[in-house]
Structures are given as C-alpha cells and as structure tokens.
UniProtKB/TrEMBL annotation:
Its EC number is 5.1.3.1. This is Ribulose-phosphate 3-epimerase. GO terms for biological process: pentose catabolic process; pentose-phosphate shunt. Keywords: Carbohydrate metabolism, Cobalt, Isomerase, Manganese, Metal-binding, Zinc. GO terms for molecular function: D-ribulose-phosphate 3-epimerase activity; metal ion binding. Pathway: Carbohydrate degradation. The lineage of its organism: Bacteria, Pseudomonadati, Bacteroidota, Bacteroidia, Bacteroidales. Binds 1 divalent metal cation per subunit. It catalyses: D-ribulose 5-phosphate = D-xylulose 5-phosphate. HAMAP family: RPE. It comes from Tenuifilum thalassicum. Catalyzes the reversible epimerization of D-ribulose 5-phosphate to D-xylulose 5-phosphate.
Amino acid sequence: MMTRLVAPSMLSADFANLSCDIEMVNKSQADWFHLDIMDGVFVPNISFGFPIVERVKSLATKPLDVHLMIVDPDRYLERFRDAGADWLTVHYEACPHLNRTLSQIKALGMKAGVSVNPHTPVENLIDILEYADMVLIMSVNPGFGGQSFISNSISRIERLRKLIDSKGLSTLIEVDGGVGPGNAKQLYEAGANVLVAGSAVFKTDNPFDAIERIKNA
C-alpha cells in the first residue's frame, strides 16, 4: 500500500491559541505540519514568516512541511532551514533555475518539493522529477484557504503518478486545496500520498476525528 500522510495546514489554525492547535496536531494521527508562506506578490495574500515557523518548530513533535508561495525563494532557503523546515517546497512558476533550487534545498539538509499551480501541466515536470522528493499539486488557486476543490485535479494526479512510476521514482505526490474526508479516498486512489487539509480540520468540532477520517479514507 502506498504511503498515506496527512498534513494539517496551520494557515487555518487559531493564531490566538496557536500552541493549543499545535498540541492537537502533535496528539493526532497527522504526520506533518503544513506551513504556507505567502508574500502578497506571487499570490494575492500575506500569511506569516520566520517567527511563526520557529514557534511551531519549538512545539512540534512532527516534521514541518513548508510551502513557499513567494517570488525569488532562493534568497530564503537557508533561513527556512534555520527556522525549522524539514520539507521545503518551491513553485515551478517562481523558479527559473528549478533543478538548481531543488538541489540547493537538499544540500541544506532538507527534503525538496516542487509545487504546480492548477493551470500548469504536470508534464512540465518530467525533466526535474529526479531532483524532487515531492510534487505538490495545487487543487485550488493558491492564496486563500477555504476554496472549493478544482475537479480536474484528479486527472492531474493520475497523470503525475504515471510519470513518476514510469521513471521508477519514489517521489511523493502532495495535494493541497479543498481537501477533506469527503474526497480523501478519491485522491489516494488517484495516486496521492500526502493530503493537506486546513478548514476541513481546524473548522470542525472534532479535528482529531477529521484527521483520522482523512488518513484512513
């Protein structure tokens, strides 16, 4: 059976009670913490920066999966490593020298991910898959939480899974955007390994149950 991981998105957490939500994820069946870094330039929103990443790292008992939705991410790779990132994902659309960026992330001791926006064909990644530990498929247009899942994301996951398998690689597929207990099974069956869920976890009465249902869909 393929790897099935759940990474709650801290963008949807309660920042007035952040330590409580971090403790919930620590105690839950979740596998990673997902942290979205937005700069207001690459995406039309601003989230949080190094102090929050460092704070989560100081309390987390699970790896930090940091997703950079920013222009010129190369400037900050080392800073995010120092802040506590275990996995660091950059956008295909933001990196003119992508294999160099992914290689640098790995040289800094982190796992390297590459993300593609909904309009970017997954086939564009064929020549850099061997440099990536993970590919993150955005199933909404990045920038805001709580958006509806874009339905053609399923076929994109299936096509990417075939590409990865045809090359004999062990690259993980992560999916972020509109993910919840209702579509988790379909996403795993399409070939996804890691599901990022924000609103579906933190905006429910029972986050523990939501995480368990996503993981065991």
